[in-house]
Amino acid sequence: QAKAEGKGLARRFDPAQFAAAESRRREEADLRRALDAGEFEVHYQPIVDLEGEHTVGVEALVRWNHPERGMIPPIAFLDMAESLGLLPRLGGWVLEEACRQAAAWQEQNPGFELNVNLSASQLGNPDLVEEVRGVLDRTGLPPSLLVLELTESVALVDLVESARVLGALKTLGVRIALDDFGTGFSSLSHLGALPVDVVKIDKSFVQAMQEGSGASVAEAVLQIARTFKLAPVAEGVEDATQASRLRELECAQAQGYHFARPMPAGDLTDLLARQAALSS
Ligand code: C2E
Ligand code: MG
Ligand code: MG
Ligand code: MG
């Protein structure tokens, strides 16, 4: 009897469910179309040296500039792009576009660094190392100026394999950053196993920091970075209090709305020109 009921349920037409599936299908088709239509853009958020507050590099952050819906943030489409298998292509495009742009910025700003995020499927792609090598060759960006960011959750899908791929990437001369550091659960035990150069302190810890208060997670993460000889970058710095507290804790670099929001390449070029004019 239960079986008969189950069958009946499965057959019954559910308009809400149908509409949801329809809308998802439309959105998937839209996303595939967008990649061919060139609707993605890379924005760049300054990474500043906390001492002088000048911009020493940028993080490349993808956006979807949709003809009807306007600028769509990555959180609204990256998971879908990943599940549709579009991220190797989209991520490859972001990498090449950002490296080309960073190579152009080198002319006026030698040593200016570029951070690019890698997804799980990119890390799992056996051609990744060759792809990165090809992009560096084509764009002329010095490998030492490229930092590839991955989150702990991405790195921990297969720790041994991640360590191997990251090691191979490092032979190209690029650096590796652990993104959103501290939000995973096994950070400490795995830090030693991965060839990482930079840790990005997650914004939740930066924002939980109180001036003058005792130990904070941010402080503990900075201590870990020191112990493992990793360069710390604080993410999500939104006010001067957080910036000065991080300075006291000797965090060298930071990123956040307090300094600058992610912006189109042209605006970043203007920012670099203003910065050069001020310092000359
Ligand atoms: P993420 O790599 O941790 O990047 C930092 C995110 O924090 C960015 O969000 C940035 O706009 C935001 N942010 C920066 N400063 C502040 C601040 O002061 N306060 C707050 N509340 N947020 C701040 P965005 O651009 O929306 O990107 C979200 C995430 O999407 C990124 O987090 C990254 O995981 C992913 N993502 C973005 N672009 C790419 C990409 O090209 N490839 C891959 N695989 N992932 C990407
Ligand atoms: Mg990142
Ligand atoms: Mg992050
Ligand atoms: Mg994040």
Automatic annotation (TrEMBL):
The part of the entire sequence present here spans 279 to 558 of 558
- Per UniProt, which keywords does this protein have? Membrane, Transmembrane, Transmembrane helix
The protein's name is Diguanylate cyclase (GGDEF)-like protein
The EAL domain, residue ranges: 24-276
Q: What residue range is the signal peptide?
A: none
